[in-house]
Amino acid sequence: MIARRHILTAALLIATAVAAPAHAEDKPAEIRIGTQKGGFFPAVRQRQTLENAFKPLGIEIKWIDFQFGPPLLEAINVGSVDFGYVGDSPPIFAQAGGAKIRYVAAVKSEGNTQAIIVPKDSAIKTLADLKGKRVAFGKGSSAHNLLVAALEKAGLSWSDITPAPLAPADATAAFIKGSVDAWSIWDPYLALAELKEKARVIAFDKDVHRPNAFYIANTDFVEKYPSLVAKLNTSFAAEGVWAETHHEEVAKAQSEATGVDIEAVRRFVNRSTYSVVPLDAEVIKTQQTVADRFARLGLIPKPVNVSDIVWKWTPGS
What we know:
The chain has 13 helices and eleven strands. It is α/β, with parallel strands linked by helices.
């Protein structure tokens, strides 16, 4: 009996030893995080918060920068990025195109960091004055949604303007040269245009609709590593709390990382919000309104149900 017990114990130890490496391998060697120009991400990177949180797990953090949301989500879709931050429109276009993405957390904006602007001497005074004008925007971006919603509010249709889908760098040049009449754009490009070009805002997000931003993850990554997704959310939520009371540090880090004028960055940071929260019923309803708007106008190939790709995050679980 004793010998048999020893044999069983030895067998159990061997099984445990064999299983241990397999369990250790059930983690990625690195997590690839996609970010856009600016925000609080340069400060987070400087503070090494994510790196310190995941180092004990043997996981490295790799940061990958994008100019705006749609290419970031395409990278998440194809699996070259695991996790990223975008505005409200890119996930809708991505979902309609069958992308492998999940909403994993939200940032409720106060609507001050994106606007439709015109040159300082423009005759355009109201949203209704956009009729017949050439308007720049990032296709599939949150600025795309702002423009569509603004036209609806003014009683105009998409066909009432001449859409000029341009990436931010190209739109900046077009706005300065006067080859577009108006521009729907987000910070820090918005702040730069206000300060450098004396651009005039005819409507902020908050004047038109309720905007949100989102943390998005690759579907396979979420299904395989749900605890890591929760840890990412928790880490960014903690950094958001820190950022709310450290605007100057956030601004300096962003200016150093991007080369954007510090005064423009301060304007951006001081009107930003950083609180990271789960997607509640209100956020999902608001996002569904955006999706339905795009579907109604034929801007996405098919209607989508936002809640189908929402991953439930319970902070502290």
